[in-house]
Amino acid sequence: MKCTFPGCPGEYEDKFITHKIEQPDGVAYIDNVPAKVCGLCGDTILASETLKVIEEILKTEPT
Ligand SMILES: [Zn+2]
Predict the structure, then answer these.
(1) Which domain does 27 fall in, by range?
(2) Mean pLDDT by 10 residues, the chain (63 residues)
(3) How far is the CA of 59 from the centre of ligand 1 (A)?
(4) Distance (Å, rounded) from C-alpha 37 to C-alpha 1?
(5) How far is the C-alpha of 50 from the C-alpha of 24, rounded, in Å?
(6) Distance, CA 12 to ligand 1 centroid (Å)?
(7) Is residue 4 part of a domain?
(8) pLDDT at 61 (0 to 100)
(9) Separation of alpha carbons 27 and 8, rounded Å
(10) Which residue spans within 1-63 are E strands per DSSP?
(11) How far is the centre of ligand 1, averaged over its atoms, from the C-alpha of 57 (Å)?
């Protein structure tokens, strides 16, 4: 899939990333998040299902 970043000719690759989430009470990191990452500009896309899973993790995680 082609990168959606304006002017970037790159392609997204399927990768597993460490997703960083900034919250009012601190920063959370979630490892091994499946994402599409542009090899050129580093733009990252998470599937909507993935975002839902992350929300669930954040709700259940003790702070
Ligand atoms: Zn790109």
Answers:
(1) 12-60
(2) 96 96 89 96 96 88 63
(3) 31
(4) 10
(5) 21
(6) 7
(7) no
(8) 66
(9) 29
(10) 12-23, 26-38, 44-45
(11) 28
